[in-house]
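Entry: ABC-type amino acid transport substrate-binding protein
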Amino acid sequence: MRSSSPSRTRHLVRATIPAVAVIGVLALAGCSSSDTAATAETAPADDVFNQELHDLLPQSIQDSGVISFGALWETPPVIGVDAADATTPIGIAPDLAAKIAPILGVKAEWSNLQWPAQLPGVQAGTVDALFGQVTITAEREQSIVDLVPFQKTEEGLLLPAGNPKDVEKLADACGLTIAVPVGSNQSEKVKAISDAECASDPIQMAEYQGATAAVQALRAGTVDAWFDTAASLQAIVDKDSATFTSIVLPESEIPAEFGGIAVAKANPGLSKAIAGALKVLIEDGSYDAVYQEYDVAPMAITVDELVINPTTGTAPGEVAAS
């Protein structure tokens, strides 16, 4: 097995994802909760407000003047909290939401949601949209939610500093225990690799509600690795490189995916409005500026990749026939 190299354990690698066609609507644009919610103090601004996109919003959002977003505030740089203030999320998703809101003529409100409650929560109307941890998959697009891509995500493993077990890919983890988010698609990926490559010594999995508990388990030696997005893992390493290192899983094993803003199938207008506002931000350069600020520019998507339900092309609001 190869030993870890600095370039492999410390830097993100840009993924290449084929561009997909832009949906017509874009032409309109020029878990359980923790009881913690925050409202962005971003009032609608005349110079960015888009009436056509505002009119796509569900009437309830137009009336309240608020879009409620949910995520688990534990995965920086996408979303986390400042140690001095745990009541307001910070990161890429809150920054983008704060720019989307005035275009739509509303304010952005945030709830801190554990992962298992997120998809049921948006379907039930607990929040209007999920913005942080949802990976775009065909199954989700066709049957659960509509998904607006907002970034590309590579996945990786958080490991003890020095990578003592020489893990460079999931297939190197036969016989080890990998922490995964409870109810996540990471567990399906681990199982698939384990079944194919580790039949005689399977990879064991331990499920955790979020990154905080999983990282604590890795620190204690209860698990051998934590499986999450590469950017989130790098943020952990940056804070404590004496304890942890991380690897980006090879594209041949775990292809890069889109991270998406998830909206209930019952609210296709909201999906279209959010997609339209993102198009505005990409075209005026402020979207790319956010990713550059967090030093993760390779995660940014292009206008051509901004299409609702990009994996299957399922129309917003539609559920695929079983």
